[in-house]
Amino acid sequence: MSVHEPDTGLRTRLIDTGVDLVAQEGAQALTLREIARRAGVSHGAPRRYFPTHLELLSAIARRGFEELARRTTAADGDGPVSPRARLTTLGRVYLEFALGNRGMYELMFRHDLLQSGHLGLRDTSLPLFGRLVELVGHARPDADARLVAGALWANLHGIAQLWGWGSLQLATGAEDFVPLLRSALDAHLGPEGE
Asked: Is the pTM of this model over 0.90?
């Protein structure tokens, strides 16, 4: 490796460290200094690979989108399963990811990261939404699939946030989020079986 070639191992280690840090302490802990400290490098080292804090956060968030995409792809079958059943599965996977990875989930949907376009973050996030739009289009061919999918996604995001805070359990008495997921699908797609 020449003096001018970047050390991709260190770049990966910085991202890995950020992924671990967000999992342990949440998005607010993701400072350049703390990531550098935990990676065992000088506080200026991340700047060689990520000129701005936003670029490092985008690289970490990209890992979250890649993991969510991997999970949804693994759970989503292309066989004879109905679009409604596939949407139920994808909604469950989405909520499980959100609730099991709260710091990463919060980071992934920061508007400044998504808007910035750093590191192709939208290229990782938009296909997930595209899959949702496609399935909604099959389940509700009479509707504007993009708008219905957006409303459904907002509903799922709200369930994830409120469930994570303990508010929905208190308000509804529900012991798990599955009945809320089904109600959200009914609200946006119509009752099952119609």
From this structure: no
